[in-house]
Amino acid sequence: MLKRIVSLKNKKLPPWLPFVIAGLGAILYLIQAFIYAHTTPSSLDEGSYLLKGILYLRGVYEPFEPYGPLTNKAPFSFLIFGFIEYLFGAGLRTGRYFSIVLGLFTVIGTWLTTRRWTGDWLAAGTVWFFTLSPMIIKLHTLAVTEVIIACMLAWICVLLLDKNRPLWQIILASTISSIAVLTRQNMVIILPLLVLYVFWQHGKQKGIWSLATTVFVFLVIHAYYWPRILIIWTPWLPESLTPFLNSFRLPNESVPVWDPNIDIWNRLNSFFQGIRYHFIPIIGSIFGLIFLSPRSKWKDDSAFRSAVFLASTFFILLLMHGWASLASQYESYSCVFCFSNYLTFFDPLGVLFFVIAFNYAWNQNTSRTLLIFLICFVIIFATGIGFSLFEQVGNALLNFPFPRFSEGRFQPGLTTVSDILKYGLNFELLQIKRFISSSLGFAIGILVLVIAFFFWRKEKKKQLSMFIINTCLLIGFILSPILHLGESQINCRQDIILAHENLGKYLREIIPPNSLVYWDGGNAFTPMVYVPDVRIFPPQINNGYTYHIGGDPDTLYYFSHWNNELDIQWRSEADIFIIEAKRYANWKDFLNPQEFREFAKPADSPSCAQGAELRIFQRLP
Fold first, then answer.
1. Which end of the chain is more exposed for a tag (fewer CB within 10 A), N or C?
2. How many whole angstroms from its chain centre is CA 167?
């Protein structure tokens, strides 16, 4: 079925049509990106990258500096945003517009590589994968590292994937790969895989150049920040085997406040949420791996080598980030609902592996065992995707009318699904929502199988398994915006970027230069990006995620963390207090009129959430 749709690139259609379709997809991508950029509240991560980045570029602090901001990511994650801010002005607009440009280049890079391997029509389809994925677009518009890495990986593929690539492209791709690792250390696996691929695909001489380039860039940056850069690698190394690195580890004598206890149901929810937000890269890659032909049947050796590189890199990264978010209990990685965001790092790899496998080596001769597995796979994943939509679908269908049935027969009148499950099976409200949404997902999975069977009956010379995967992928592709229900909606009606700029201007006007500012103005420290001539308490940039109970204050501060003793000390030292309105109740006694005066409330709020307005106080002389 997919092959037939792709075969539309015949002589009856003008050769320029796929370019027009791809261009239209890119335009719609940009329209959505600008809407999200101006309507999405800033996050802790975004404020962290922007503020730390500009502080580093201005020389106020250095990455990994003791008692400075927490450099918990590789240095370029902050320095890249800092450099852009240094050139075009510090602020949310600069960071988000830069991310939009990177997102567009991610789309273009994926399109270029797909076009090289499969032609214009599938390349246009990859553009529309991004266009129909609002959650991915939304993340591409934020000043966070996901879009930086996605862009780097997309262009590594442009430069590297094919035979007879020029040496300068090999060297450039190798340099970008090292920079990617120096932007997010969790990308480290791409270095050995890329070098091995270059040796395999492009030969010994180019392989040596690739190895030398990656090692040189990697070691030079490590040498510059040595030895404090070891801080980003210690969480990866067992403490019992590396006691000589303990000086780069925060001692265990304190208890972090951020210690989430996420149950198995919420971890499953996060897993399937990631699947539905990244349906084509993940499901397409899994199908591509399952139905991959033996090497002897590949049309092109270079396509086989490229597919092996893409598949190994994509699935290793998928497993690494799945473990880090969904399974790990370590503090550094305990961000269960970051799984979907993490997948954005390497979406281009999954898309490219799928299209190359589909175009060059789709094995259409499958066994009955594989067919049974495929049927079970579709039903399980459809049910799981439905499960992850319980907050949207479950709520919407709670009062869905249902016939009354008791004592073995239908009764007059109607009831609701919610009442049946509540009074008939003693389900709690959360269980009801999950059951309803899972049942709907199960029903859609069955419907996919029925549709596939219907088309297969008309053309029995083809394998039923091919119709199942084609139907599943096509329906998932078309329904992508629906699969992105939830966080993909527009958050605010106000212009968030303009609000930050107005708020930043107001803060610059009222806060005296060199003031020491205490921040309790919300998770996102973003408004302080606009106030360059003040001093801050650096650990507060990461808010409560670096707050501990107990521990030695100086040791915690040295590692850019804080506790109650430091909090009390900072409150006694600060000149200016910026408080989020909904947190003011906790400050009312401390900020008494005898010691503090309040400035006029800002006209703009950093978020549209209730209680997000800021209140600014100054200590009286």
1. C
2. 32
- Identify residue 210 by its one-letter amino acid code: S
Q: How far is CA 434 from CA 62, 380, 583, in A?
A: 48, 15, 33
Question: In the chain, how many domains are there?
Answer: 3
562 with 502, same domain? Answer: yes
543 and 611 co-located in one domain: yes
- Whether 143 is in a domain gets the answer no
Placement of tokens 């709690």 in the chain: 428
Read off the pLDDT band of 440 (50, 70, 90): confident
Closest CA to 485 of 272, 293, 317: 272
Q: What is the pTM of this model?
A: 0.92
Angle subtended at Cα 117 by Cα 114 and Cα 118, rounded to the nearest 5 degrees: 75
CA neighbours within 13 Å on the CB side: how many for 464? 16
User: Rg of the chain's alpha carbons, rounded to an integer?
Assistant: 27
The number of CA neighbours under 13 Å toward the Cβ of 592 is: 4
Query: With contact defined as beta carbons under 8 Å apart, do 542 and 48 qualify?
Result: yes
What is the SS3 assignment for 100-148?
A: HHHHHHHHHHHHHHHHHHHCHHHHHHHHHHHHCCHHHHHHHCCCCHHHH
- Shared domain for 478 and 500, answered yes or no, is no
Structure tokens at 237: 């190394």
Of the pLDDT bands very low, low, confident and very high (cuts 50, 70, 90), residue 326 is confident
Q: Is residue 393 part of a domain?
A: yes
Q: Does any domain span residue 593?
A: yes
Q: What is the DSSP string of 71-94?
A: --S-THHHHHHHHHHHHH-SSHHH
Q: Tell me how far apart the alpha carbons of residues 159 and 210 are, in angstroms, rounded to a whole number.
A: 12
Model confidence band, residue 496 (pLDDT cutoffs 50, 70, 90): very high
Instruction: Provide the residue type at 457 as one letter.
Output: R
Q: Both ends of the chain: CA-CA distance in Å?
A: 77
Q: Which of 453, 483, 513 is the endpoint of a domain?
A: 483
Q: Is residue 478 part of a domain?
A: yes
3-state helix, strand, coil in the chain (%, to 5): 65, 5, 30
- Burial of residue 339 (number of CB atoms within 10 Å: 0-12, 13-18, 19+): buried
Q: Which domain holds residue 562?
A: 496-619
**Confidence class of residue 10 from pLDDT cuts 50, 70 and 90?**
very low
Both 500 and 458 in one domain: the answer is no
Domain ends where: 442, 461, 483? 483
CA atoms of 178 and 188, how far apart (whole Å): 8
Q: Please write down the HEC assignment for all residues of 351-363.
A: HHHHHHHHHHCEC
C-alpha torsion angle, residues 444, 450, 452, 457 (rounded to 10): -170
Which pair of structure tokens corresponds to residue 376? 């079970």
Q: Is the domain of 512 the same as that of 598?
A: yes
How buried is 460 (Cβ within 10 angstroms: 0-12 exposed, 13-18 middle, 19+ buried)? exposed
The reply to whether 301 and 404 lie within a common domain is no
Angle at 200 between CA 196 and CA 202, to 5 degrees: 110
Q: Are residues 290 and 404 in the same domain?
A: no
